[in-house]
Amino acid sequence: xxxxxxxxxxxxxxxxxxxxxxxxxxxxxxxxxxxxxxxxxxxxxxxxxxxxxxxxxxxxxxxxxxxxxxxxxxxxxxxxxxxxxxxxxxxxxxxxxxxxxxxxxxxxxxxxxxxxxxxxxxxxxxxxxxxxxxxxxxxxxxxxxxxxxxxxxxxxxxxxxxxxxxxxxxxxxxxxxxxxxxxxxxxxxxxxxxxxxxxxxxxxxxxxxxxxxxxxxxxxxxxxxxxxxxxxxxxxxxxxxxxxxxxxxxxxxxxxxxxxxxxxxxxxxxxxxxxxxxxxxxxxxxxxxxxxxxxxxxxxxxxxxxxxxxxxxxxxxxxxxxxxxxxxxxxxxxxxxxxxxxxxxxxxxxxxxxxxxxxxxxxxxxxxxxxxxxxxxxxxxxxxxxxxxxxxxxxxxxxxxxxxxxxxxxxxxxxxxxxxxxxxxxxxxxxxxxxxxxxxxxxxxxxxxxxxxxxxxxxxxxxxxxxxxxxxxxxxxxxxxxxxxxxxxxxxxxxxxxxxxxxxxxxxxxxxxxxxxxxxxxxxxxxxxxxxxxxxxxxxxxxxxxxxxxxxxxxxx
Length: 557
Description:
Blueprint: E1 27-31, E2 42-44, H1 47-54, H2 63-72, E3 78-82, E4 102-106, E5 118-124, E6 134-140, E7 149-155, E8 158-166, H3 176-182, E9 190-194, H4 204-207, E10 224-225, H5 238-242, E11 262-264, H6 271-284, E12 290-291, H7 301-309, E13 314-318, E14 320-322, E15 325-328, H8 332-335, E16 340-343, H9 346-359, H10 370-373, E17 379-382, H11 392-399, E18 403-410, E19 417-421, E20 426-427, H12 436-453, H13 463-478, H14 491-494, E21 495-498, H15 509-513, E22 520-523, H16 541-556
Parallel strand pairs: 1-3, 1-11, 11-12, 14-18
Antiparallel strand pairs: 2-3, 4-5, 5-9, 6-7, 6-10, 7-8, 13-20, 15-16, 15-17, 18-19, 21-22
Helix pairs in contact: 1-2, 2-9
């Protein structure tokens, strides 16, 4: 029945304008390491996670140390691509000289059918010298079953893994290859290969590796050491850092992951690489990644200007940070006894950017410069020979060539010593966006807008859909009003979104017939106040008021 005339009120699902969230301020770092997957962009959530996946610092390369500085300075997530030398990136991704550490275990030399015979090969899971610190111990099975054994993995003296009650019989549920290589408890450090000692059909007990503590001839310290691991860095060159799209090596490994919007490479500061990195951010990442440009070692004023002049102007990279800085020596066993070492500033700088995003109202639009927002927390001094940057005339000069100077001094804000980045320019200041803060905010918008459009891609290009997209974009842009990222607090002056719902211009019938949809977003980003003029004059208002009062009184007399 229809029933009586009435008004019904009910609640319906909200029409959401919320855009999908995306991790931001994610560092993309490319460089050598002693461990971990090769030429594979790998997400890391903190430094302990990085150490487990890629190992510790390297004396001749900075990438692993920069990861530590990034996290310590406020960074929250990192994507790392480990590289090595490859003979021809266009033909293969196979390392030219990287080697996995290995050791071969033998059967008992006094009991059994096959005496002192190679039976089980243990390889490091990854290429690299960290594998040389791995030790293997074989001992009697925890459950006491003859013919089974326990296999323990150490890094030096630290126990990493313990695999219990393993068998050399491939039909056994505890078969060594299955448990160590592919099971839910698979090793994070080694792989095991059954060498089928004597005969594939031999009795498992005869193939069992001897307890390492019982064979001091082959294992003089009671364990078997993996050896011959190599990081594959002989002949490493710029081509290995850049990589190739055909095999997704080097920079192009980042093309296979969504995360990563701040790119650094402290171990190759050649102009060839830096131009390639800026181009990658622009063409491959479509402006969703910004390259932070490090200075070459010991760059003088003249040297850093020449470096800047040899770089292609680009708004997808920062101006060159200069000079390098000193930090307290984090490991005398790796870097020697000097109390301080010199490093590139990019890791700390990107960590500061990430911290600003969390703590400042302008968030992603905060300019990472000056003694507060550009502070490099762990820097204790400037590069030894480059104190000329402290001269005002030098900073004025190099800035004009595309350099963001780094200086030191007593901070006016708290009276403490500090080292900080003193400017915020991009590698090109003639385009839409001229500063790092502007570019970071727009990069954020590019990422979340693209993510939102995935739900609309391939769907019918209708006025309603274009209107919905426009409303969603405007809703997101409106959230940032009054937060210091726009040149105006008025929405009408701060941004615009044109999706052409009526299909008359951007999305005219011809465009729609070509199965395209076009959207134009304009953002009036706030320019940084790089130059502040503080002016003084004498306040004569009291005198002028008194004179005026006397004149008034005189005229009334």
